[in-house]
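Re: the request from the purification team.
They wanted to know what the chain is likely to look like in 3D before they choose a buffer screen. I agreed to run a prediction and write the result into the notebook, where they can find it.
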Amino acid sequence: MKLMQPKPSDESPQGKQWGYEVKYDGFRAVLDWGINDVFLISRNGKDLTNNFPEIISYCKQNQGKISSHLPLKIDGEIAILNTKLQANFSLLQQRGRLKSNDKIKQAALDRPAHLLGFDLLDLNGKTLTKETYQTRKKELKNLFDGLGVEGELYFNERLGFISSYSNESDLWKQIVEHHGEGIVAKRMDSKYTLGKVHGDWFKIKNWRTITGVLTTYNKENGYFEVASYHNHLLEPLGKFKHGLEGEHLTILKKFISSKGTKVGDVYQLPPAICVDVNCLDVKDGELREPVFKEFRLDLTPEQCTYNEVRSALAMFPDTVDLSKQDKVFWEEKGLTKGDLLLYLREITPYMLPFLTNKALTVIRCPDGVDEESFFQKHLPSYAPDFVAGLKADEETLLHCGSVDALIWFGNHGALEYHVPFQFMGENKPNEIVFDLDPPSIEEFPVSIYAAQLLKELLDQFQLKSFVKTSGNKGLQVYIPVTKGSITYKDTATFTQTIAYLLEKKHPDLFTTERFKKNRHNRLYIDYVQHGKDKTLIAPYSPRINKQATVSTPLFWKEVNDSLSPINFTIETVVDRVKQLGCPFASYQETRRTQDLQLVKEFVDDN
């Protein structure tokens, strides 16, 4: 299929005549939605309909909502989302290669894909390509509003709308925060022009610039290999070809001829030449979309380390001067402050939604988990404005609403992040939480059983619940609610009654006794902690213990006898969430559909 394509650009065009969209790392496709059939067709004309049955099923289920607009064609991107701004291209590639219908169906259940629409080509069987981008975008949003997604991107839906932003810098900040692929700039009054022969759409990549040492050159295909030092040995990062041309390439080839050792078509190079390469990622010895940037004559090969590569890929904010990254924070595991900072930067887009607009209490361990620690909830005099919250009793509360803030806290040794159950300045909760606290980690299986029983009860109230590890020895069950929909007085009645029910059913296993000496080795169902201004460990926060564990969101199907909290650490959780997706991905949007009618009736009766 011939589609309009964005042209690569190093800079975004500016001005009121431009709109800016998120560029997702996926498969370009057209959703051909007819009166009787629905098809997904790739840019190359390949039929992808059978590869993404979840998208097709969603369309058919919702056809009645927009039947008056059919047939239509939506131009978009098929993507598997990690976050609302970050797609997982490697999983999508694996999905695209599947041939077995059973495997495709299972993949659709495990990590469902979205069709993210950014343009509307046909409506009511009539082409819109002669209309302006602004007009097409407005019609597309109206279409999505009719589907009930109100122009938003929801994880529970299979079609998503890619919004247009007028402020490029605000969008770019979000892209960087989420490690997104980049943006596309589009002229508001442009028509839909096939191919790239236009000056109306431009794509700008969110490059990570890594530094490495040239180690090989393949004369046959023109590829260079770049490596970095890890444990004093050069280890490959990947290969690149594009961007190195002209005089620079000629000079380099002369060096290769005189200094390299030829083995077949490949020249082995001595570690002498350092280069900067733009890419989107480095994984398993491969660079994602690499482009040569420049030679680094100011560096020695020994300065091109894998730690520097990791830091470059993390894209730390330049508002924070990172310090003492080699300081050991977890002695038993050999993990450093630098490892903590890398974890916090990678987990930022998953963790921030649970910190933003909430007062923050941190526990700081400036010298690691085995040394002194202390709580902090008020703004110190040396702190920057971007960690300041609201005023309270002549003090300013701490707040973490940006990647800058999270990295600043981590750089100052903040290991634990605790938040209340309401937004700053609010008196009503936006979530209900049960804390299931066994006497020790050896009794963790009791918390699994308690969580399973609790979910059964919450299901009877038709509540959508979420579960996570505490990061130490227990589990915590969350119920997101719409802001202002219920009072703390009502939640106190609800949580207390549910806790008493569980205790009464299994008095040998569970207790609501606050004093540890009176619990007699039973699991404590903590409902008292759920109250105004009281706090609980935030999702994805590290914990202060020797194992470097994390309070980790779980899928309910994981809450079984094989579950162990020690498997979720700052070393494993980032890869886990990228591979499996975030179990709390739909947490925020669940608020809008959470029905508390049965809860309120229950509270009134008690």
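For the purification team: The CA atoms of residues 418 and 537 lie 4 Å apart.
Please add any questions underneath this entry.
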